[in-house]
Design brief:
Rossmann fold, 17 helices, NAD, alpha/beta, binds 6-O-phosphono-beta-D-fructofuranose, binds 1,4-dihydronicotinamide adenine dinucleotide, three-stranded mixed sheet, Mannitol_DH_N, mannitol-1-phosphate 5-dehydrogenase activity, N-(1-d-carboxylethyl)-l-norvaline Dehydrogenase, domain 2, 6-PGluconate_DH-like_C_sf
Length: 380
């Protein structure tokens, strides 16, 4: 049986990427640090992916097992040696932590086989695989790096499926939205995986996804949180003001995307509407706290709020609604989120402009910062 190794047996790992490999005839070895999930994968060897619809259709995902990256290094190295694909869905901040083990796996593999391995990071981050590749190379000697050529390939990708936090402690089953899109950038001819689309140039796809799905979701999460910190995304969309704000913000990112990539304006508008409808799915029960999680990452210079604002400004386009979304993100003070707490401390100690400089790379006296501060004071 063909083998896939997937780092991160969480929501996207089990509910999306691992499920596609299993449906394509692969055995999937999930590598994680959560013993409870790993033990269950090895014990039950299957789980259900349930669709968040009124019919609640489900798919059984079979041929799965689990390894602990902290306790089973040798087994992970062996699994990497035998795999055709190595994928991740663990969060961009964790990539540097798994790179040393992947490097050991690759070093061992290239001594044993000339078979090709395809590495794809499935994270909400532009060029996530390039970042992972960089971290892996830092852990390899020159001779091994040279041996990777024509044997280990690294492809960037964009992943789109909403998978909320699961309220089913003790179960491997995952509730997911029916929609999904996995776009992988490569010019190679690679083994087929059901549901994977191949493109030669990822930039328009990942920017369209990140600056529509993730920007829109972030706007709802941060404004929804300000209204009621215990609410869900679909509940927040019952507020006409929030709906209007999402539409205006996606109008701004849309204007940038249309200009930058020559998208058809009508088609892009339909894409926006389809996405807002996905957000309204009440079966997902997706909390504003999950979607707003890790605000330091989400306020990063290349992420879903700041990058489109900077690009829109450069292109002479409107960015005031994006500035409002940034301001709302700066007010996200959910006390179970480490990054939110850190952000609030930064703001308290040094002020909004200084926090924006440090987190988003925006100059303290830039026009965007000025606009964000105006919105921040109004929202506060
Ligand atoms: N949930 C969603 O709807 C979507 C998430 N994504 C992206 O997918 C990635 C994963 O997100 P989720 O699945 O939602 O997160 P999650 O928190 O459900 O899953 C992450 C998994 O990684 C594991 N992990 C953490 N540190 C690890 C380490 N050092 N070694 C091995 N495993 C480790 C955790 O135990 C957990 O099982 C993120 O980059 C996210 O932005 C992308 C599209 C959709
Ligand atoms: O997973 P992140 O980057 O923390 O952000 C949450 C976002 O990612 C998703 O989980 C999937 O794209 C969305 O639900 C949401 O926009």
């Amino acid at each position: 049986m063909k083998q896939a190794v997937h780092f991160g047996a969480g929501n996207i790992g089990r509910g999306f990427i691992g499920a596609l490999f299993s449906q394509s005839g692969y055995h999937v070895t999930f590598v994680d640090i959560a013993d409870q999930i790993i033990d269950q994968l090895n014990d039950k060897k299957q789980y259900q992916v349930k669709l968040a619809t009124d019919q609640q259709e489900s798919v059984t995902v079979k041929n799965v097992s689990g390894l602990n990256s902290l306790k089973q290094e040798e087994e992970v190295i062996k699994a990497i040696s035998e795999a055709t694909y190595l994928t991740t869905a663990i969060g961009p901040n964790i990539l540097p932590h798994i790179a040393p083990l992947i490097a050991k796996g690759l070093a061992s593999r290239v001594k044993e086989t000339d078979e090709k391995l395809y590495v794809i990071a499935c994270e909400n981050q532009i060029s996530a695989t390039d970042l992972l590749k960089g971290y892996i190379l830092e852990n390899l000697d020159q001779a091994t790096k040279e041996k990777l050529a024509d044997k280990v390939y690294f492809f960037n990708s964009a992943v789109d499926r909403i998978v909320p936090i699961q309220n089913n402690e003790g179960s491997l089953d995952v509730l997911v939205e029916p929609y999904y899109e996995w776009v992988v950038e490569t010019k190679e001819s690679i083994p087929a995986v059901e549901g994977m689309s191949i493109v030669k140039e990822l930039a328009p796809f990942i920017e369209r996804k990140l600056f529509t799905v993730n920007t829109g979701h972030a706007v709802i999460a941060y404004l929804g949180y300000l209204k009621n910190e215990n609410s869900t995304i679909d509940q927040s969309l019952e507020d006409a003001g929030i709906v209007e704000q999402v539409k205006k913000t996606l109008g701004e990112t849309g204007a940038y995307l249309i200009k930058q990539y020559g998208l058809d304006a009508g088609e892009h508008q339909q894409y926006i509407e389809k996405i807002i409808n996905r957000f309204k799915n009440s079966y997902l029960n997706d909390s504003v706290n999950r979607v707003g999680r890790s605000p330091l990452r989400k306020l990063g210079p290349n992420d879903r709020l700041v990058r489109p604002a900077v690009e829109a400004k450069k292109a002479g386009l409107s960015y005031t609604n994006l500035a409002k979304a940034i301001a709302a993100a700066l007010l996200f003070d959910f006390n179970e989120d480490e990054e939110a707490l850190k952000l609030q401390t930064m703001i308290k100690e040094h002020g909004v402009a200084s926090a924006l400089k440090e987190v988003s790379g925006l100059d303290e006296n830039s026009e965007i910062t000025e606009e964000v501060i105006n919105h921040y004071n109004n929202l506060k």
